[in-house]
Amino acid sequence: MGATAGVLVVRRVTRVAESLTPEGAADRLSAGLGQLAESVRAFTDEVRAGMAERDAELRHALGIAADGSGATPGVADVKAVDDLFRTTPRGTY
What we know:
By secondary structure, this protein is mostly helical. It has three helices and no strands.
């Protein structure tokens, strides 16, 4: 039992010592920066999706074709235009 405890303690101390070396610090920093980059990427994707959704809402309300080539046949949706000036559930106008 004592030998097993000794081996576990030595392994733990070795891991801690390795993490305090410059290489260990670089590994931790690299992992942290990787997580930060992934978070920024996810946030950017969410913002882009929201922008695309809002752009589609505005184009529909104003009667603009989805490709931006000009007005779609018919008249702008007056109710949708009025809704543009009301707060939506996500807190935008």
